[in-house]
Amino acid sequence: MDTPCLCAPVVNSWTIFGPMQCLSHRVLGLGLIALFFAACQPETAPTAKPEPALPALPPVPLFNGDSAYAYVAKQVSFGPRVPGTAEHRACGDWLVEKLQAFSDTVIEQHAKVTIYNGQQVPMRNIIASWHPEKKERILLFAHWDTRPMADQDPERKNEPIDGANDGGSGVGVLLEIARHLALQAPQVGVDIFLTDVEDMGEPHGAMGLGQESLKTWCLGTQYWVKNPHVPNYTARFGILLDMVGSKDAKFAREGYSMRYAAGVVNKVWKAAAAAGHGDRFLSETRNYVGVDDHVFVNEAGIPSIDIIAYDATTGGFPATWHTHADNMDNIDKESLQAVGATVAHVVWTERE
Ligand code: AHN
Ligand code: ZN
Question: How many structural domains comprise the chain?
Answer without folding.
Answer: 2
